[in-house]
Amino acid sequence: MSIFEYNGSALVAMVGKNCFAIASDRRLGVQLQTIATDFQKIYKIHHKLFIGLSGLATDAQTLYQRLVFRHKLYELREERDMKPETFASLVSALLYEKRFGPYFCQPVIAGLGDEDKPFICTMDSIGAKELAKDFVVAGTASESLYGACEAMFKPDMESEELFETISQALLSSVDRDCLSGWGGHVYVVTPTEVTERILKGRMD
Amino acid sequence: MESVFGLVGKDFAIVVADSSAVHSILVHKTNEDKIMLLDSHKLMGASGETGDRAQFTEYIQKNVALYQFRNGIPLTTAAAANFTRGELATALRKNPYMVNIILAGYDKDIGPSVYFIDYIASLHKVDKAAFGYGSYFALSMMDRHYRKDMTVEEAVDLVDKIIMEIRSRLVVAPPNFVIKIVDKDGAREYGLA
C-alpha cells in the first residue's frame, strides 16, 4: 500500500460567485482499521484562507504547524494577512525544500484574494502548483472526485447552491472509496461570513 | 503483539495494557508494567519495540517533570500529548521510535481526556483507542458497549469484557493485564487501595 493511502482522505475545493467552498471527509484510519470519525483535515489560516491537507496524517499535522508558524511571523512583520496566492507559494516552497525526503501530503488551498476574488489551487507532495478556475481535488478519493465535480459543477454558483453541489460531489465520491468517508466537513466562505457544516453520509 | 487500550469515562480515564514481555517465541516476563505515570494526573500506556518503549516513555516522563520544575505548574494533558507528538515527529525521519502511545490525563477545568499517538506521530484526541492485535477486539467491543459518561464500575466491566475477548480469541493471547485509572485524585493502578 502506498504511503499516501496509509490514513485515507478526500478533499475538494470549489469556486462560486464571490465565494468558495472547501470540503473534506472525516475519517482517520490506519490502513484497513478506522481510528476516528471526527478527524480534522481543513485548517483555517485566517478568516479568508483555508488549507486542506490530504495524505499522511502525521505530515499533515507537522506541515500545518510549520505553516501557522510562518503565517504568524508574516502577520507580525507585515501587519496584514497573507494573500492566498502568496500563501500557495509559501506552501510550495516548504514542500520543495524537502524534495529528496518529502512530506507525504497533497494540499488544497482556498481563499479570497484581492477584492474578494476566490482563489483555489492544489499541489503535489513536492510543491508543483495547479491553479484552477473551477475546482480542485486531492486524496485517496481524488479520481472519483474529479468525475463527480466535472459532472456537477457550474460556474458562478451562489453560496447555498455551492454548498449543495460540493456536498453531493464529496459524499458520492467517498462512497466509492473505502479509505475515506464517515461524514463530511464543509466550509463555505463569503466576504462577510464563514459557514461550517458537518455532513452525515454513509457511515462506513 | 502487545495490546494497549484506553477510554474516557464520566470524570476519569482508564488505560489497560498487557503485561507480557516477549522476544520471538520466548516470554521473558509476565508482569511488565507498560503504563507509565507521567506525573500525578497523567498516564502513558505504550506498546511497540521494547527498548524504544522503555526509553521513550521515560524520556517523556522526565521532560514533563522538568517542565514542572522550571515553570512551577504541571503541563496540561493536551500539552503533554503535543510534546510527545513533537518528539516522535522530529525523530521520525532520523531514527524513528517504534512506539504507539495512549496518553490519558485529568485536568482540573477540562476533565478527563485520552490521546491516540501513532508511532509515526499522528495525534488525535479520542474517547476510546486501542493498539496491537488486541485492538481488533477492543475497538469492536468498545464500539458496541461504550457510552459517554460511564461510571468506573461500568467502565471496568467493559474492560473485563475486552480482556476476556482478547484472551479467548487471540492465538497468542497475553495472560495478564494491568489496569490504571486517572481521575481528580490522581493516577494510580486500579484495584490497589
Automatic annotation (TrEMBL), chain A:
Cell location: Cytoplasm; Nucleus
InterPro entries: Ntn_hydrolases_N, Proteasome_beta_3, Proteasome_bsu_CS, Proteasome_sua/b, Proteasome_suB-type
CDD domains, per the entry: proteasome_beta_type_3
Major site of localization recorded for this protein: cytoplasm
Cellular component, GO annotation: cytoplasm; nucleus; proteasome complex
Keywords in alphabetical order: Cytoplasm, Nucleus, Proteasome
Quaternary organization: Component of the proteasome complex.
Protein name: Proteasome subunit beta
Originating organism: Forsythia ovata
From TrEMBL, chain B:
Localization in the cell: Cytoplasm; Nucleus
Source superkingdom: Eukaryota
SUPFAM superfamilies xrefs: N-terminal nucleophile aminohydrolases (Ntn hydrolases) (SSF56235)
Main location (coarse class): cytoplasm
CDD domains attached to this UniProt entry: proteasome_beta_type_2 (cd03758)
ATP-binding keyword on record: no
GO cellular component terms given for this protein: cytoplasm; nucleus; proteasome complex
UniProt subunit comment: Component of the proteasome complex.
Function as written in the Swiss-Prot or TrEMBL entry: Component of the proteasome, a multicatalytic proteinase complex which is characterized by its ability to cleave peptides with Arg, Phe, Tyr, Leu, and Glu adjacent to the leaving group at neutral or slightly basic pH. The proteasome has an ATP-dependent proteolytic activity. Non-catalytic component of the proteasome, a multicatalytic proteinase complex which is characterized by its ability to cleave peptides with Arg, Phe, Tyr, Leu, and Glu adjacent to the leaving group at neutral or slightly basic pH. The proteasome has an ATP-dependent proteolytic activity.
Protein name as annotated: Proteasome subunit beta
Organism (species): Abeliophyllum distichum
Phylogenetic lineage: Eukaryota, Viridiplantae, Streptophyta, Embryophyta, Tracheophyta
